[in-house]
Amino acid sequence: MRAWDISPVAFMVGCTALEVPLFSVLLLARRRHRDVVAVARATWRQLVAFGILSPLSYILVLTAITIAPVALVAPMRELSVVLVSLFGAFVLREGSPVARVAASAVVAGGIVLLAM
Description:
Blueprint: H1 8-29, H2 33-42, H3 44-67, H4 70-90, H5 97-115
Helix pairs in contact: 3-4, 4-5
């Protein structure tokens, strides 16, 4: 972001402008796209929330990178991997909770090493 001197929002809008047509074509090329439409109709609120919050979180990371050194921002970004893994294990009751917690501990250890 610093090297190109562009705003995080402009970068994200540019990326999204390229991704949406590409993914739309790929989705329509699938034979079962009617199933996707049915799921989208049933879960549209969650999809809208994800569609707003996911790019917003990335914009916040890009903004943080323009303000602080990448060496400080990157470990904090990886913390989301740990939190999502633990959320899946304990809240959503996804499979292999021991493996998820162990993997989260490895990632958390890496974060600590990066932050040193």
